[in-house]
Amino acid sequence: MLTLTDLTASYPEQSQCFSLTAAPGTITALIGPSGAGKSTLLAMIGGFARVEAGELHLNRQNLLPLTPAERPITTLFQDNNLFWHMTVYQNIAIGLNTTLKLTPTQQQRVSEVADKVGLSGLLQRKPAQLSGGQQQRVGLARCLVRNRPVLLLDEPFSALDPALRFELLQLLREQTDKLGLIVLMVTHHPAEAAGIADQIIYIHNGCIFEQGDNSLLQAPKSRELSHYLGRENNGE
Ligand SMILES: Nc1ncnc2c1ncn2[C@@H]1O[C@H](COP(=O)(O)OP(=O)(O)OP(=O)(O)O)[C@@H](O)[C@H]1O
pLDDT per residue over 63-118, tens digit each? Predict the structure, then answer.
């Protein structure tokens, strides 16, 4: 279980404070207006943003003293950080070892993960020879090959067309279930989030305003969430 207790970032314009839990095998979608604090939340968990106060645990392990590389976490950003001069195989392998010198077992693992995400026939290509959806699959494969229990996704599929986004979200759902991953995903597409997420968290002005399952989007309690979803005020 990933547990955040009053995890706080303090920026000059906005302070942000989050408490939540996320279980293995679940996807938590983070939604909310631009500037609400979604990326900051992921950055604090990943170790890329300064934490002012609060606690962050995976099971009983305190993650705050750990550097990003030491945390049992991997992050996929929208700009998937592919290396354009390397092959697909190397782009995945670099998730395991930055020198690309892999043991036979690690090489086997790269092939297995590539297979899982539907890239097995494309391992010798360069990213420029792939479609946008295939490039994102490479980014996802690089995260999965690391075999870390927590996966953070910051709008990874938002530049893709709806059909490809849907395909990658299905793939994500499948891998989350199979591997028992704890996935936190920022998305600007609430309806899609509702399609695959177990838990939806609405962030507004640096804090969690509402959280729940998919029904949250059918019946928002706050004006803020209604407004964000583009609905009329519900009269409260
Ligand atoms: N390094 C930083 N230094 C100072 N302020 C920051 C920093 N990073 C983010 N902020 C501020 O924190 C607030 C939340 O930003 P954040 O990027 O987390 O929002 P977001 O919900 O991810 O937005 P978007 O959907 O546009 O990506 C904003 O007011 C932003 O200006």
Answer: 999 999 999 999 988 777 899 999 999 999 999 988 999 999 999 999 999 998 88
Question: From CA 11, how far away is CA 25, in angstroms rounded?
Answer: 33
Domain boundaries of the chain, sorted by first residue: 1-72+148-236, 80-146
Burial class of residue 75 (count of CB atoms within 10 Å of its CB; 0-12, 13-18, 19+): buried
Q: What are 29's strand-pairing partners?
A: 185, 200
Q: Is 38 in the pocket of ligand 1 (CB under 6 A)?
A: yes
Q: Which superfamily, per CATH, for 1-72+148-236?
A: P-loop containing nucleotide triphosphate hydrolases (3.40.50.300)
pTM for the structure as a whole? 0.91
Percent of the chain with pLDDT over 70: 97
Confidence at residue 74, expressed as pLDDT on a 0 to 100 scale: 95
For a mutational test of ligand 1's pocket, the pick from 38, 77, 188, 202, i.e. the residue with the most ligand atoms closer than 8 A to its C-beta, is 38
Query: So what's the ipTM on this one?
Result: 0.94
